[in-house]
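Example (one chain per record):
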Amino acid sequence: MAYSYKNLFFDLDDTLWAFSVNARDTFEEMYLKYGYHHYFQSFEHYYTIYQRRNLELWEEYGNGRITKEELNRQRFLYPLESVGAGDVALAKAFSDDFFSVIPTKRKLMPHAYEVLEYLSSKYNLYILSNGFQELQCHKMRSAGIDVFFKKVILSDDIGVLKPWPEIFHFALSATQSDLRESLMIGDSWENDITGAKGVGMHQVFYHITGKTGLPFQPTYQISDLKELMEFL
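Predicted structure:
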């Protein structure tokens, strides 16, 4: 069955902007710059500790148990604390530098630019992201994709993260989009796909994680952004 869409809502990180690659590059730069080799066996040692705690903290933040400030303070301090070097000033300097450098990174997911170029002439394109206001727009400008989007809707705007229904309703209202004519495209099963389905919005699961045993069939499933050009 063919559907008639007018509005495409894209997640940003790891759907369009290559967050995992850009973040790792930035962390490695900071690791060397701030002499973290004095505290950790290797960059991998540090990054494994960071990522594990970071996931937990984002979950706490998403459930409203900690603030954005506490999330950022803890995730940069925790790795140092875990090796007995809980230097608050060092963690803060590392963190501040990290946040100034990461939005300047420009790597995109494969074929993201050409796909956006193609879609932008046919649809209203919007960003719907859990990222921070001060970073997301800068990241889009650095990568040269800001020009394709009519509006950027962020969890920061209303203090609610995907997959909560409120942010999807807010996005539809803020863009004056009809639910039946809207499509959510993202790489996070929980945030993008489950969240969109929860409000009755069609979804495209950008399946790059190898996740198996999906609880339900998304409207569409792709493994390459170029596949969007086949049905949109």
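Caption: The mean pLDDT is 96.
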